[in-house]
From TrEMBL, chain A:
Originating organism: Stichopus japonicus
HAMAP family membership: Urm1
Protein name: Ubiquitin-related modifier 1 homolog
Keyword tRNA processing annotated: yes
Keyword annotations: Cytoplasm, Isopeptide bond, tRNA processing, Ubl conjugation pathway
TrEMBL record, chain B:
EC main group: transferase
Lineage: Eukaryota, Metazoa, Echinodermata, Eleutherozoa, Echinozoa
EC number: 2.7.7.-
Biological role: Plays a central role in 2-thiolation of mcm(5)S(2)U at tRNA wobble positions of tRNA(Lys), tRNA(Glu) and tRNA(Gln). Directly binds tRNAs and probably acts by catalyzing adenylation of tRNAs, an intermediate required for 2-thiolation. It is unclear whether it acts as a sulfurtransferase that transfers sulfur from thiocarboxylated URM1 onto the uridine of tRNAs at wobble position.
Protein name: Cytoplasmic tRNA 2-thiolation protein 1
Species of the source: Stichopus japonicus
């Protein structure tokens, strides 16, 4: 099957504020998500991140089906609470940033 | 479809946890800075001519605090002098990196910086303390020593006030912990916006009503340079549980944090409840509810090679230390090699 630009979306995922410690201290990730018939939501992305990027202690990043309380999510520099949280439909070229508020100085 | 800012109608970037309002970046900055200014002026935190040591760890809270105090001092002409004050606990691989951040902040905000170390003040680094006592209870040493270290550093700087970056989440957490521990004396003190005026220098918390979420968002949007880390020695388990519980509550009802602070502030203690009398340490002069303060007791334990005896109830540890010093005085006239004791004058 030939790959066309419609069959995946490219997004930028970033971890900071200490969240990167769970990802081998790698902050920025360019991610290609293959497109099936169902849209990619944050809910789905969290599962994908847990399975593909997360390196340790998953309970410090996800809890049940959502992100651990105290980790903020920004979608294109806006609070995810404004765009539908878990149900937000991810678009091609989105920038999704996870910032932990749980770490000290 | 972007949500509109409640204040100006522009594209919102943040849902404010305190109010639930959606706000745009500029209106968020405006509200955030105005609210901290309100906290400062309403609580009379500063007087013209004050020399204020800003506790700076390189983390998000203290970085935002240093940035905003500098900004507000200029904008509203508080007429205060600001100095960054950092404590080096002597934890290799933890504090080194964050102190580098503070050193950059010094140039970014054009503020003088002073670093005081546990090693200089007490003769012990946290690395050396952990080597002695292991990974249990080391937070007790660190917490007690840090409190005094800030005071001593500030006095060296001839500052007359200390400002710390404690935020609303920190205070709510502390209220919760003091309730859980039944620590009435601390419960009453912990919500005060200015404390310590009786003994050490007065310390104030200009971010007392500021949510952690907003501090992090403010630092993010302002692109402030801060360092996030976790201490390599201990997760401070008790506070960790309180924090997780609070974060869970916040998700269900964001006002929980401010509500908890309000509860702490509104508590009144019955007159017949016996409270510890705050005096001063007979050894170092620091504020203490016992004849010898916790830092001196801990230090004495360390220097006598009995570090664990100083953990727990003060009276009990005092007796054990006295007993230990009597027996060691009679058997050992010479100063033991462990006695790398520093004079603690305050």
């Amino acid at each position: 099957m030939a790959e066309s630009s419609q069959q995946h979306i490219d997004i930028h995922v970033e971890f900071s504020g200490g969240a990167e410690l769970l990802f081998d201290k790698v902050k920025e990730h360019e991610v290609k998500l293959s497109h099936d018939n169902n849209p990619w939501t944050i809910r789905k992305l969290l599962v994908w991140i847990k399975e593909n990027l997360l390196k340790e202690r998953p309970e410090l990043f996800v809890q049940e089906d959502t992100v651990r309380p105290g980790i903020l999510i920004l979608v294109n520099d806006a609070d995810w609470e404004l765009v539908g949280e878990l149900e937000y439909e991810i678009q091609n070229k989105d920038r999704i940033i996870f910032i932990s508020t749980l770490h000290g100085g | 479809m972007p949500v509109a800012c409640r204040m100006c109608g522009g594209p919102a970037v943040l849902k404010r946890p305190k109010t639930g309002d959606a706000v745009c970046k500029d209106c968020f900055f405006y509200a955030f800075e105005n609210e901290v200014n309100y906290t400062i002026t309403n609580g009379n935190l500063f007087k013209r001519g004050d020399r204020v040591a800003v506790g700076a760890s390189g983390g998000k809270d203290s970085t935002v605090l240093a940035y905003i105090l500098k900004l507000l001092n200029e904008r509203h002409d508080y007429g205060i002098e600001l100095i960054l004050l950092s404590v080096d606990e002597g934890i290799t691989g933890y504090r080194d990196d964050s102190l580098e951040t503070v050193k950059r902040n010094q140039h970014q905000y054009d503020l003088p910086l002073k670093i005081v170390s546990y090693e200089d003040l007490y003769g012990w680094t946290m690395d050396a303390i952990v080597k002695q006592i292991g990974l249990k209870n080391n937070c007790t040493f660190c917490g007690v020593f840090r409190r005094q270290a800030l005071d001593r550093g500030a006095m060296l700087l001839k500052a007359n006030k200390i400002a710390t970056g404690h935020n609303a989440d920190d205070i709510a957490e502390t209220v919760l912990m003091n309730v859980l521990r039944g620590d009435i004396a601390r419960l009453r003190r912990c919500t005060a916006i200015t404390t310590g005026a009786e003994g050490g220098l007065p310390r104030c918390k200009p971010l007392k009503y500021t949510y952690e979420k907003e501090i992090v968002m403010y630092a993010y949007f302002k692109k402030l340079d801060y360092f996030s880390t976790e201490c390599i020695y201990s997760p401070n388990a008790y506070r960790g549980h309180a924090r997780t519980y609070l974060k869970d509550l916040e998700r269900i009802r964001p006002s929980s944090i401010i509500d908890l602070i309000h509860s702490g502030e509104s508590l009144s203690i019955k007159k017949d409840v016996k409270m510890p009398v705050q005096g001063t340490c007979t050894r170092c002069g620091y504020i203490s509810s016992n004849a010898i303060c916790k830092a001196c007791t801990l230090l004495e334990g360390l220097n006598k090679g009995l570090p664990k005896l100083a953990i727990g109830k003060s009276n009990k540890s005092r007796r054990l230390l006295d007993a230990a010093s009597q027996s060691s005085d009679s058997t050992n006239e010479k100063t033991s090699p462990k006695e790398k004791k520093k004079d603690v004058t305050f």
